[in-house]
Amino acid sequence: SFTMNIYLFVYDLMQFCGHSWIFTNMIIRYMTFGKDSLADTFYSIGLVMRLCQLLSVLEILHILIGIDKSRLLPRFLQITERIIVLFVVINSQEEVQGKYVVCVLFFLWNLLDVVRYTYNMLARMGIYYLPLTWLNFSLCIPLYPLSVLAKGFAICVSLPYFESFGTYSIKLPFPFTFSIYFPYVLKMYLLVLFTGMCFIIQNLFHERMAHLGTGNIKNKRS
């Protein structure tokens, strides 16, 4: 248990460092270059962002082996949403990488993750600050739906490029008469994305009540 706690602390620390670097870099670049910095957000921080999101896949494993008590399905949906939008939609279409929606999406993701991993690190040590606890379980409720809207917008922006270039669209040769038109797959995924959002928001409210209920607040204060 102690070893696993140390491992989880190191994992949270690595994610905190990565997302803090991205978040700080975005703010400094915007203060220095203004709106011109928005168009090349992906080119300047995309590599670190991809590494952090790949590392987050370990969180699914943490839940499966029982060292993380979070619910599996909500976390799985949140992680796969980011992986699909980042690697399948944005990374595969260079024309989408320069859109402002990528900057908005990265800002929302990193703002949420800096708070979450800070809270997790302190919680591993048994330290609970009420303002940070409140922020961790409250900030995600308005920002997560905004991030889903940004993901949906990024997918819609990418559709013309997937249609033009035929990326990921597959047409099987004879004797098979089966083909996969990827823009249709993305349109169907939009339905999954917004349906999953309702489920995840419900889970976020449940977690907020569990951690910020009157009894829990008194216990953490004591």
From TrEMBL:
It catalyses: a very-long-chain (3R)-3-hydroxyacyl-CoA = a very-long-chain (2E)-enoyl-CoA + H2O; (3R)-hydroxyhexadecanoyl-CoA = (2E)-hexadecenoyl-CoA + H2O. Keywords: Endoplasmic reticulum, Fatty acid biosynthesis, Fatty acid metabolism, Lipid biosynthesis, Lipid metabolism, Lyase, Membrane, Transmembrane, Transmembrane helix. One of its GO terms (cellular component) is endoplasmic reticulum membrane. It is a multi-pass membrane protein. One of its GO terms (biological process) is fatty acid elongation. Its main location: endoplasmic reticulum. Its EC number is 4.2.1.134. Pathway: Lipid metabolism; fatty acid biosynthesis. It is found in: Endoplasmic reticulum membrane; Membrane. Signal peptide: none annotated. The chain crosses the membrane at residues 7-30, 42-65, 127-144, 181-201. It comes from the Eukaryota. GO terms for molecular function: very-long-chain (3R)-3-hydroxyacyl-CoA dehydratase activity. The keyword Disulfide bond does not apply. Belongs to the very long-chain fatty acids dehydratase HACD family. Catalyzes the third of the four reactions of the long-chain fatty acids elongation cycle. This endoplasmic reticulum-bound enzymatic process, allows the addition of two carbons to the chain of long- and very long-chain fatty acids/VLCFAs per cycle. This enzyme catalyzes the dehydration of the 3-hydroxyacyl-CoA intermediate into trans-2,3-enoyl-CoA, within each cycle of fatty acid elongation. Thereby, it participates to the production of VLCFAs of different chain lengths that are involved in multiple biological processes as precursors of membrane lipids and lipid mediators. This is Very-long-chain (3R)-3-hydroxyacyl-CoA dehydratase. The gene is Hacd4.
